[in-house]
Amino acid sequence: MTDARTRDDVISAPAVPRVPVRGGGGFPVRRIYCVGRNFADHAREMGATAPASKAERGTPVFFMKPADAIVTGEVVPYPSATSDLHHEVELVVAIGGDAPAGVLPVEQAQALVFGYTVGMDLTRRDLQAAAKAKGLPWDTAKGFDHSAPIGELVPAAEAGALGARQLELRVNDQLRQHARLSDLIWDVPEILHELSKLYALRAGDLVFMGTPAGVAALQPGDRYEATLEGIATLRGTIQDDPAAAAALG
Question: Looking at the domain assignment, is residue 17 inside a domain?
Fold first, then answer.
């Protein structure tokens, strides 16, 4: 006979992070996958070699953030342990169904997409640089609290085709980053296919698709506006206020 106590939680279960959906409802987040070096210009500005053709792409670079790193409000606290917080504006893809077992074929990948939005992969660049210099993992540079501000999700049918839509970030009304989604090295179906070789993709997963060139520092008090042309806009302010971080959890 099983002791009933082994089936009970000994602490309160944490709330499931949710992203608001245009038209109502919330999207519960399971995992956050991120793609590195998915725009050639950003790869070059980070000191990497960008592929000259699809045949030279190699393998995508992936890393992860915790699900509760998302920020859906307009206040983002400046993180601890850094003096060089960088913005990275990105297309975000939401997965609305479980992938079949095995490797997901590219031609079936689009059917899993629930919707799109715009987000930011905030990065403690000084911690990343220090880790890279020592050949160490740089999880602390990417997977910290409040490191994934995200806009409302727009269902794929409403968003329409991504095509060459513009991805853009302004800080204090000054243009910092911009690119067309057609410049992605790996497009959405290709990235889902590659992720499925490593992980079982499930409903509730988010994929941050990578950032274009122009990454730079954010300071307390900075206002940002990130735009995925014709689909979503994300606005917020960086605050150096411990109370703001505490309020967000």
Answer: no
pLDDT tens-digit readout, 125-158:
999 999 999 999 999 999 999 999 999 999 999 9
Please report which helix (H) or strand (E) contains residue 170, including its range. strand 166-171
Whether residue 89 lies inside any domain: the answer is yes
Measuring CA to CA, which residue among 194, 213, 233 is closest to residue 42? 213
Query: What's the CA angle centered on 236, arms 230 and 237, to 5 degrees?
Result: 150
Domains: count for the chain: 1
Residue range of the domain that includes 49: 28-248
Rounded distance between C-alpha atoms, residue 86 and residue 81, angstroms: 13
| pTM of the entire predicted model | 0.94
Partners of 120 in the beta sheet?
89
* pLDDT tens-digit readout, 25-84: 999 999 999 999 999 877 787 777 777 667 788 899 999 999 999 999 999 999 999 999
Amino acid symbol at 224? Y
Q: Phi and psi at residue 15, in whole multiples of 5°?
A: -65, 145
Cα Rg, the chain, nearest whole Å: 18
Helix runs in 61-187, H state only: 106-109, 125-133, 139-142, 156-159
DSSP-based three-state secondary structure for 215: coil
